[in-house]
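Interim report, section 4.2 (structural modelling).
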Amino acid sequence: NAGVMQNPRHLVRRRGQEARLRCSPMKGHSHVYWYRQLPEEGLKFMVYLQKENIIDESGMPKERFSAEFPKEGPSILRIQQVVRGDSAAYFCASSPSAGTAGYSYEQYFGPGTRLTVT
Amino acid sequence: QKEVEQNSGPLSVPEGAIASLNCTYSDRGSQSFFWYRQYSGKSPELIMSIYSNGDKEDGRFTAQLNKASQYVSLLIRDSQPSDSATYLCAVNVPYSGGGADGLTFGKGTHLIIQP
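Predicted structure of the assembly:
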């Protein structure tokens, strides 16, 4: 399967625990984006990463959330001390390259991780 | 503040008819526009991208873009019950350095195709 992979698909955490969400981009893609979809709300951009670099984290909550995309291995979205309001679907998308001349490449989404905080 | 507006629906269309989905956006600097389809409980699936004013056709789908009016639409011809889903409009504003920023999504239009 050459598509974007995410794991786990479902994750249950108690309040105060840590959640780690993983994303492997599509083969040949080096740009990763994380989005969150809260119940009854739209998709919201969180962070954009390239290998070993955070390019734009303007959508990330200031506390408890962090992301990385190491030289080897998947991109990881980490949520520390989870609260009930973190319950949502977290999607990862990838694109083959940065845009050029002001235009953006298409982004392809993975199946998502559904986080439930109890 | 980037905003993308869509009518939430539901939009009900008879099978075989044309479904017309509309989207407006606020940032005049937007250059890249996308339509995604999302079935309930699933992830967004890219249907169309459009970058230039005018129409772009792909099978039963046609995307239309009017940058002067800040308007983008999606037409689905010969609608099928399997087209019933939420359709998300997404817009991208380039940032300095020529990179591809995160997409700004509308809340989506729920489309129902009636057999």
